[in-house]
């Protein structure tokens, strides 16, 4: 189970880091993959700052936790909190707005999947004490 916990942390951290770097490099194009159109330099800067900055920070923190076994619990809580909140609010938005797309479904499944894996990892760490 240790390999699973470590893998969840590494994968979730790399996903955040990857999306953060994508928003840093090509913010409007990255958001367009989700079907959202933006225009102008101000929009690009805001996307870089918030989406890029927050996701890079979260990815780096989770990866730092993944690299030290005594920090796995912290990384799992961070993974659960972030991916769980993003996934549940995405699903709520889909219901509120009546929106649906393959991208939204894939993103929601990925986010809820990471949250559930984090819960499983936390349960395993608690049982292993």
Describe this structure in words.
This protein is an all-alpha fold and 129 residues long. Helix content is 85%, strand content 0%. Helix 1 packs antiparallel against helix 5. The two termini are 13 Å apart.
Question: What is this structure, in a nutshell?
Answer:
With 129 residues, this protein is an all-alpha fold.
Please describe the structure with a list of short key phrases separated by commas or semicolons:
single chain, mainly alpha, 129 residues, 5 helices, globular
Chart the SSEs and their pairings.
Blueprint: H1 2-25, H2 27-32, H3 40-66, H4 72-97, H5 102-128
Averaging pLDDT over every residue, what do you get? Answer: 96
Sheet of most strands:
none
Specify the number of helices: 5
**What's the gyration radius in Å?**
16 Å
Structural class assignment: mainly alpha
Helical fraction equals over 70%
Please indicate the percent range of residues in DSSP E strands (runs of 2 or more).
under 5%
How far do the termini sit from each other?
13 Å
Low-pLDDT stretches: none
What's the β-strand tally?
Answer: 0
- Tell me the series of helices and strands, N- to C-terminal: HHHHH
